[in-house]
Design goal:
By secondary structure, this protein is of the alpha+beta class. The chain has a single domain, classed as Pnp Oxidase, Chain A. 30% of the residues lie in helices and 41% in strands. It contains 4 helices and 7 strands. Strands 2-1-5-6-7-4-3 form a 7-stranded antiparallel sheet. A hairpin with a 5-residue loop joins strand 1 and strand 2. Helix 3 crosses helix 4. It starts with a helix and ends in a 5-residue tail after the last strand.
Length: 138
């Protein structure tokens, strides 16, 4: 996929991502997430005290897989390093944008208020590697 194609693919509809973080013992932890792209950054929210939040505070390396499980199948894997942001205005802003993507614009502010609270993090990942393949089964 071209740069434009993989960006369109991961941003299409309500495709979720499967985020991999690194546990303290070096083993992987994978969890589904809602996200949006912001230029060359992947942006999502998580709780500071979740497994993801604790893993990212200790080791910012991440990989995210977004796939289409229908023939002919396709996937994009994004890799990068996470920056954790606790600024409540930024957390709320991006929580609303993400909520709007997945739940509809009519509910965006609801999700911004729900997830834009102390203890929640804005996670901004600068994408430094992309592996993208369309039509895997062709």
């Amino acid at each position: 996929m071209t740069d434009e194609q993989w960006r369109e693919f991961v941003s299409h509809g309500t495709r979720t991502g499967k985020l991999s973080t690194v546990r303290a013992d070096g083993s992987p932890h994978v969890a589904p997430i809602w996200f949006v792209l912001d230029g060359d950054d992947l942006v999502f929210n998580t709780g500071k005290d979740t497994v993801k939040g604790r893993n990212l505070a200790r080791d910012g390396r991440v990989a995210l897989c977004v796939d289409d499980d229908r023939p002919p199948f396709a996937f994009v894997v994004l890799q990068g390093r996470a920056e954790l942001i606790e600024d409540i205005e930024q957390v709320r802003h991006w929580a609303a944008r993400i909520g709007g993507r997945y739940m509809g614009e009519n509910r965006a502010e609801e999700f911004g208020e729900r997830n834009g609270v102390p203890g929640e993090l804005l996670v901004r990942v600068r994408i430094n590697k992309v592996l993208a393949q369309a039509a895997v089964a062709d």
